[in-house]
Amino acid sequence: ITGHTEPYTKLCCKGFCIDILKKLSRTIKFSYDLYLVTNGKHGKMVRGVWNGMIGE
């Protein structure tokens, strides 16, 4: 959590790849959203349909 007063910001991700993502987004001007999938899975094909992050 960042900051000492509201609004607080929750940070879910950090590290080298996130630093590169931030730099690229500033350099080539794009936005992104990072979030954790609710079931903690990245994707699995179930009955011919992908779920998780892949399915989105």
TrEMBL record:
<dbReference type="GO" id="GO:0016020">
    <property type="term" value="C:membrane"/>
</dbReference>
<keyword id="KW-0812">Transmembrane</keyword>
<dbReference type="InterPro" id="IPR019594">
    <property type="entry name" value="Glu/Gly-bd"/>
</dbReference>
<dbReference type="GO" id="GO:0034220">
    <property type="term" value="P:monoatomic ion transmembrane transport"/>
</dbReference>
<keyword id="KW-0675">Receptor</keyword>
<keyword id="KW-0479">Metal-binding</keyword>
<keyword id="KW-0325">Glycoprotein</keyword>
<dbReference type="GO" id="GO:0046872">
    <property type="term" value="F:metal ion binding"/>
</dbReference>
<keyword id="KW-1071">Ligand-gated ion channel</keyword>
<keyword id="KW-0862">Zinc</keyword>
<keyword id="KW-0813">Transport</keyword>
<protein>
    <recommendedName>
        <fullName>Ionotropic glutamate receptor L-glutamate and glycine-binding domain-containing protein</fullName>
    </recommendedName>
</protein>
<feature type="domain" description="Ionotropic glutamate receptor L-glutamate and glycine-binding">
    <location>
        <begin position="7"/>
        <end position="56"/>
    </location>
</feature>
<keyword id="KW-0407">Ion channel</keyword>
<keyword id="KW-1133">Transmembrane helix</keyword>
<keyword id="KW-0406">Ion transport</keyword>
<keyword id="KW-0472">Membrane</keyword>
<dbReference type="Pfam" id="PF10613">
    <property type="entry name" value="Lig_chan-Glu_bd"/>
</dbReference>
